[in-house]
Structures are given as structure tokens and as C-alpha cells.
Batch of 2 targets.
Target 1
Amino acid sequence: MLTYPTQSSLTEEIIHNYKMNKTLDTAEICHLLSHKPKEEDQLLFTASRDVTTANVGEMVHLRAIIEFSNVCEADCLYCGIRKSNDNVERFTLPTEQIVQTAVEAMKQYPGVLLQSGEVQSQAFVNRLAEVVKQIKQLALTNSPLKENFRVILSVGELSQNQYKQLREAGADRYLLRIETTNERLFKNIHDRQSSMNERMTCLQNIKDLNMHVGTGVLIGIPGQNLFDLANDVKFFKKIGADMIGMGPLLPAKGTPIGDNYNAQQVLKDIHSENLFDTVKRMISVTRLMNPKANISATTAMEVLNPESGRVEAIQVGSNVVMPVMTPIGDKKKYYLYEGKSNVKSGLDVLKAQITQAGRKYDLTKPGDPVSWVERQK
Ligand code: SF4
């Protein structure tokens, strides 16, 4: 008599094969991402936690985020600070305030992420390069890490020469989310001439400059399925991403997607149950496929599950958290999605969450991605 593997044994078999071959094919990734009984998910989560410990260790790294401007020339359909969202009050911090906030950050944290909307003018890049230079200079006397204090940028798509200028000014890392590797979905959530291929070219340009390359995706895009997510995970591996950030798509008022957000439909589209669990599985599978990358526990996870969003992300494979140090008056104006500005991310809160997740923190080391460190050998 023919017997077929049960769901349980299929999950076990996939994890077993992964341990032998250190890779997963598309069908295996789809199965691991799919809705399963809790005990099967647990097999996946245990495997990804073990892979995290073995490859990047037990430390969770912290970097402060300074959101220095919510002015954006783009009009992404999901994003609360898209240029046509008139509900948002725009701000841009003066150079001195960005630098001063970074100096405060460097007394506690080993790196700072400067984030803004996308502005492609040369004047914007010149000013940002000046900010980066000043921060790196001041780190020599104000940060215990001195020249190892890291500056990370996330300001969107720029030209190769502009990335080069920022690298030469001292930027160490660059985050540019691909958002989705399905070209149709990419077009559905972006307004303009920008294409997925152009964004991929930007990522390659960043890599060619030997910056730490960060990317990531949105989970819960209307029409997205597990096959799309499996391709996203394979893309991270293909480009050798050093840093990966993934979060659920959360609605923002004043955006086409946010104003039509039907949470139930989005959940059905993805996998017929809780979006939070799908993101957790994505973190797990991404860790299996990218053992040496840094993977962040995003603020959006905490919004989706205020009880334990970050903790659970860390438990299944995330090893980076990012406290927000945007000046309090402007924090609410950096309105990417509903609920973001309410998330607590002070150092004490994060230390407690890391400990609760059974991990450790070390504020004395830059926490460079192991994947990047190994590329330098
Ligand atoms: S996602 Fe980025 S580029 Fe798009 S509108 Fe928002 S800030 Fe601008």
C-alpha cells in the first residue's frame, strides 16, 4: 500500500534536508511559509534559531535611527509620507540638529541610521555627504568605537556617482528595500518611472562600492502569494544581502492602499491566517537561506503585535533592533504607517526585550554583518 508523507513529516523532512544541504528549493520554502500546526512551525523556528546562534552568535545589535526629513519626491501607494499625502506636515532637520542628535546617539549606540524620503537632487546629496563627514569626524572623539562607529543611510534610489560620494564621505552601510521581487506587484505599489530592475541596479551599485548592502520586502501586499515570498527569500541570497528588514504592510491614512485596506482580504491573500505568523516564518526561512546576514526585528512587527512582536522576531532569527531617536516633535510626522510613532524603543525597553528573547546585547562592537566581514578576507 502507498503511503504519503503527513504534513508533519514533510516539514521534518525539509528541515532534515536543509541541515544536509544548507539550502531550500522554492517548493520547500513555500511549504515552510505556509499555515501549519503550531508544533510544525516550532520545528522551523527552532532550526532558524540554531542557525542564527551558529552563524552570527547570540548578540543582538542596536543602531539608532534618525529620521531627518519626511520630504519625498516619490509617491509609493502604501507609504504615509508619499509626496501626495497632504495630511502630512513636512519637516527637514537642519544639519546641526542631525549631527547633534547623532552625537547623542553615539554615546549609547555603535551606529546610526539616517533615514529620509527620496530626494534625488545633487544639493540634497551634497548636504547629506557633509552630514556624514561631520558625524564620522565627531565619532573619533565622542564614540567609544571611534573609527568603527558606523553610519548607515537609507534615502532611496540615487545615481552610482551619488552613492560613491556618500561612500567616500564615510557611509558604511546602505538600506534600500526592494519591497517585492514580483514585477507586477512592484508596479502595483509604485507610482512612477522607477522600475524593479533599476532598484536592483542600485543595490548592485551599492555592493560594488563595498558598502554593507541592506534590502527587504513588504509582506501582505494585496495579491502577493507564498510563491512571491519564496522568490523574495531567494533574491536575498542571490544578491548576497548583508542586512535584511522585512515587515508587514500596515495601512497609512491618505494612501491608496491604506485607504482601501481590507485586513481580512490581505490575510486571505497571503495564507488564510495571521499575518504576524507569516512574517515570523519569513524571518525564519530567510535566516536558513542567509545564515550570515543581519536581520532586523522591525518596528512594524511591534505594531502588529504590541505584546511580543520584537521578542518573537528575535527568537526566530532576527539579530538587529533599531531604536528611534528622531526628535520627539518630528517623530509623529515621519508617518510611514498607522501606529508607528507609538512604539516604545528606548534603550531600557530594547534591552529587556532582547533578554526576554533569550539573547544578549553588546554596545561596544559595530556588529558588522558576518557576510560582509567574510567578503573582506
Ligand atoms: S516608500 Fe520611500 S520612496 Fe516611497 S513614498 Fe515612502 S519614503 Fe518615499
Target 2
Amino acid sequence: MHVSRDLAHYQQDMAETTGQEGAKGGPHYTKERLKYSPEEEARLERKHFWRIIDAFRYYRIHVQEQVKRAERQFQSLPQHHQDLLPDVLSNLARIGQCADHNQEVLQAIVHNSLHMFENMEYGEREDPRKIRPSSTFDMDKLKSTIKQFVRDWSESGQAERDSCYKPIIQEIQRLFPSDQYDVSKVSVLVPGAGLGRLAWEIARLGYMCQGNEWSFFMLFSSNFVLNRCEKVNALTLYPWIHQFSNNKRSSDQTRPIRFPDVNPQSLSLNADFSMVAGDFVEVYNEPESWDCVATCFFIDTAHNVLEYVETIWKILKPGGVWINLGPLLYHFENMANELSVELSYEDIRTAMVRFGFHIEVEKESMQTTYTENDRSMLRYVYDCVYFVVRKPAELQYFNGQNEDHLQNSPPAAKSPRREGPDSPT
Ligand SMILES: C[S@@+](CC[C@H](N)C(=O)[O-])C[C@H]1O[C@@H](n2cnc3c(N)ncnc32)[C@H](O)[C@@H]1O
């Protein structure tokens, strides 16, 4: 595993896109990242690219193996038990068919990904037809990516988007109203943009918006949906077939979703929307360049969340705002050989204030879901933290240098719109 600094510009049809993709990872205990020669970087980058392409191609075999296992288990039951439920095997066959269909969509995504980066070619596979086995880890990532289509680009994801994206979008509109600002000049960055819907919605309102994403799983998929899917609800996925437990009805497992629920190409011609590939902290180092940074379910993806806070502080213009919604489900917790600092929200808040951020809005209990299967017998609710913090227009407090400010101001006093758990969001 490595950190790449190669530039990989991903060209979007609707807006020119520049960016960087880093196959991040690797032992990360020190601040210094491993440095490789440019040739080694390029080799590792290619290897990572093809590993993810392989995962997309292997999906069907992986799911068919799960289905076969389920068939074997059922067929090992006493015959009189099997006879009680004559539909079980046909339901399993149906799951197999749904997996075949998902594979067709994944093939289309792969097909459109091979040359998606304008400044980066990944060569050709020696034996392009050969399907190579993938790890369970990569298969899990791929299944999560399939569920991400529900969240971002299906009608079934509307309620979830309302709970996660709407508060952020409304805040942007409150802070930068179109009757007071030329919104096309208000720059909004969405790090960890996933399949791009939040960034797209912000651009749809006329703001200059850039999504940033690191994962090839997400980048391949967002490229496909944003650039190749014009017809509303023309495509189908079966996102729940991988869930064999907690189904009330067999048909719940094989129910489809359609996407995209809107035409992603319907942005106005002068919309300024782009996606940039790469590691947020590596790509964004231009100081004072953004009016707004909007993070949704993102800050817990950090090895060191303070690095994100520091980067956001640096790249915001004086007077710029950071809007955040999400939990703290630290992605690297318990991962071998990975640095992971699991700070509480209280600690992050202290650090933000010490950097100099002014807390303008703070809600410690915003209930949301994330790629929820709304028919499952097991459903998770995230009790998210939401905040809006501002980098002051005139910098007085920086890097904890003004301790008095922190000590003299109890948290609530700095939060004019602090609201308790019972407050409507
Ligand atoms: C939990 S997902 C949230 C996606 C999206 N914001 C949403 O709300 O649906 C976190 C995203 O951040 C991306 N990510 C993680 N580390 C990143 C980094 N260092 N730079 C850019 N993106 C990153 C992941 O690939 C993933 O797509």
C-alpha cells in the first residue's frame, strides 16, 4: 500500500476536472509518508487501479459463490424440511439473476473508467478477459458502493438525503443567499464526495462546487453516473441481495432500485461543477482559496482528524465557513498498521476552537441513516453532530495561541444557535 502523488485528472463531460488520485494506505505511524521513486509510484498506482477494476469484474463470481453455499446449506437439510419450503431454491436462483444484472452495470462502469483520467493512463491488462479473484475487503467495498447508489441517486434515497444533505444545503443558502451574493463566485468544496450528489445539488443551485474523492470505487461509479446516465430511472440495481439476514420477506432481498432519479446532465450550461480525484490533505494545500467547505460523513475517514481540521482551516478564506454533519465512526480504528486517533467530538471541538474557528451553529443530535435498507429488521441510526464554524475574517486566534479566549468562553456561549437534542433540525 502506498501514497501516490501522481496527478490523475478525471475529465467530466459537463465541466473540466482536474485532480489527483492517491492509492492511500500503508504504514502510517509517522507524519512523513513513505516516498517512492516516480517509477515506483506509477507502478503502485497502476497496480491499485487494476486491483479495483478486478474487483468490479469479480463481483458476480463472488455473489454466485455465496448463493451456491446457501443452496448447499438448504439442500443439506432433511428432505421433509426442504419440502416445507418449495420456494427457497427459486428465491436463491433469483438472487443469482440479480447478481448477473448488477454485474452488467458494473461492467458498464468499468468500461467507462479505463480512460477516465485525462492525464493518466493505466496501460492494458496482459489478459483482459481473465477474471482475477478479489479480497473480501474489496468485495465489501464494492457492495457498499452499490448501496451508495441508493443514497445518492435513487428515489428511495430521498429521505436519507433530506436528513443528511438538506441541512448542509440550506445552511449554504442561508450563509450565501442569492439575493446578496453572486453565487457563481461562491466556492464550495465537498471533500469525500462519494457518488457526488451533495456536490451536484450545490452546483445545481448555482454555486461553484467541487467534489473531492479518493476511492477508485467511488470515482469510477460517480464518473459513470454523472457522465453516462442521462435517462431518468433507466438503470436498475439490486443493492440488497448481499444481505441474507434480517429479511422479513424473501422478495425484500431482491427488490430493485432505479437510478438516476434525476438527470445528472441537467445542470445549466454555466454551472461550475467538478470532481477532483485524490487524498483531500494532499490535493488541497492552496491557502485561503475556498468560501465554504462542506463535509458529510467524512471527518471520521481521517487517520488523524486534526489533519483535516488543519487543512480546512488553511484552505478557507478569512471569513469562510466549514459545515459538517456526520458521526465519528473512525474508519481506521482497529486496522493493523494504520495510524488511527479516535478523538471524541468534545476533543475535536476544543481543537477547532484552538485553531481559531468560531462556532456559529452546533447541534449535537441530528439523527440520520447511511445507505439504509429500510425494510431490514436491523437498522442503524447515527446520532450525528452538526456544526457550522467560521474562520474569522480578521484572524486573532491561531493554533491555540490565544488560550484566554478559549478559557474565558464556555462552549455554549460561543454557540449562538446551539440547540439541544429535542430541537427540530
Ligand atoms: C462515509 S463516505 C461519505 C460519502 C458522502 N460524503 C456521503 O455522505 O454519502 C466517506 C467518503 O470519503 C472518502 N474519503 C476517505 N478518505 C478520503 C481522503 N483522504 N480524501 C478524499 N476522500 C476520502 C471515501 O472514499 C468515501 O467515499
